[in-house]
Design brief:
By secondary structure, this protein is of the alpha+beta class. It is built from six helices and six strands. The longest helix is centred in the first third of the chain and has 13 residues.
Length: 132
Amino acid sequence: MIVVARFSYAYEAQIAKTSLETAGIHSFIADENTINMQWLYSNAMGGIRLFVEQENYELALAILNTDFSDSIKIEDEISDSSKTHCYRCGSSQLHPYTKGKKSAFFVFILLGFPLFFYKHGFRCECCHHFQQ
């Protein structure tokens, strides 16, 4: 077996291992538990190592170096297209807004404990109407 990649965090190694296993490449993670217990040893030990069999090295390297940023952009476009219009004026200029955030902060400062009476939603830029 040969090291195909090194990681600082265990979750990165697990994501890479899962990517390889979905492609049918057997892989092994080394030093994961040691780094989780003593994270200061990460640089000294060379990080968490991901091993693959030598004959699968090139394919594993190609899979790990694949850029999936195009699929993220598709999700952003879907969320932008699902915007609603303002119920009051019909405008499409809605922005995320938290109603009651300032008053909740002042209650926290005065009483010392939070009262969660704020709401998340959207605010229209044209008529300033708040909707959830």
